[in-house]
Known about the structure:
Blueprint: E1 2-3, H1 6-26, E2 33-39, H2 43-59, E3 62-68, H3 74-86, E4 92-95, H4 105-111, H5 123-131, H6 139-150, E5 159-163, H7 170-178, E6 187-191, H8 197-206, E7 209-212, E8 230-233, E9 237-240, E10 248-251, H9 256-259, E11 265-266, H10 273-290
Parallel strand pairs: 1-11, 2-3, 2-4, 5-6, 5-7, 7-8, 8-11
Antiparallel strand pairs: 9-10
Helix pairs in contact: 1-10, 2-10, 6-7, 6-10
Amino acid sequence: xxxxxGKIASAAVKxxxxxxxxxxxxxxxxxxxxxxxxxxxxxASETYVASKVKNCDETGFGSSLIRFNDDITEADxxxxxxxxxxxxxxxxxxxxxxxxxxxxxxxxxEAIHPDKDVDGFHPTNIGRMxxxxxxFIPATPYGVLLMLEYFKIExxxxxxxxxxxxxxxxxxxxxxxxxxxxxxxxxxxxxxxxTPKEETIKMAQQADxxxxxxxxxxxxxxxxxxxxxxxxxxxxxxVEDATAxxxxxxxxxxxxxxxxxxxSAITPVPGGVGLMTIxxxxxxxxxxxxxxxxxx
Length: 296
């Protein structure tokens, strides 16, 4: 049974990017720059953003972390995004979600210029992805593609079942894996919360590759897994556990201990798709940099 280790796959991506940034520095050019906006002090968001900044540093990228209190007005946040849009030294912009309830997530996402949308959430980039055009792919699905590529997981002609239809993971994942691309050309079935449970189980049992992104710990159990299937667990949830040092444990959407008795390959949680999400973000940031004509 193969563990699809995100540490190994993401390290390979970062090593390649580091070579590129070192070459840029040797040529006297600036390196890619990512600007991250964090609103409020959500613990999980703090951790995610800190990790992104750390990975930028390890890859030779520049980064800026811009913090705002959670009472910032929507207008002020939009003004800051426009300032970053206009800044020619900033290649990529991300706004860490979730945002406070008084701020419209969609309005913020649409305010980021499509050429700097390294999270791949802007409607323009989503539309280009659907059409199969070159664009920024949402970071988590991109990370999954990079993982499949690194571990040489064949997708062509395979039956892929995606459980979950969020705009961030499930829906773009289904589009990408069914598209005409190296990590694509699969027969894809998409299940979601309105799919009858018995039908979801039936489909999962037929999956050569099972992608799970529902945010429910241990949602997929051994009886739902086809022997020899490849399991991509996108879920990550903090579950309270008094016996754990931090008072909680990180659980995926797949019951790992059960799944490893049937799967041929599986992503661990933590240490799997989460690390590849950052790899996808870094790849998008380099892509944003390379798409510009004003390298300073």
